[in-house]
Amino acid sequence: MNTYVGPERRHGHADGNRRGAPVGHDALSISIRPHPAGLRAEVGGEGTLENTIASWQLIVDHVRRHDARGVLLVDRMTGPALSAEQWRALVEAMEGQGLERVRIAHAKPNGLQEVEYCEIYALEAGIDARVFEDERLADLWLRHPER
């Protein structure tokens, strides 16, 4: 399993041009592949609420299809940080989708911004999630849960 969704696929373009999204749309790229703890997803592009929800919808689809128990998300999205209200909207959009049974390590190598709100709201929703700036620490936490 290896999934790549670039701007051309997300927006219906079949010309193979992965350099940018059509006018009026924000670019999104996502690669999902197996990881020893479940799945590794790497996302990039504009860090809008729309793109963040779209990437999580794809991740949830893979979690379901592969019965993954863990997700290492390497978030390389750029742009302004999502607000606390937008992080809450994301978590609310994902509630009941099956993430409650999945351990999630969210690595933000470009800086944490205000992502701690997402961790707080996820924990309130019963989702086992932690946010890290370092991918190696995220991977370690995901592979070796506290007992």
UniProtKB/TrEMBL annotation:
Species annotation: Lysobacter niastensis
Record-given protein name: STAS/SEC14 domain-containing protein
Record's compositionally biased regions (Basic and acidic residues): 7-18
Region of interest called Disordered, as start-end residue ranges on this chain: 1-24
Top-rank taxon, per record: Bacteria
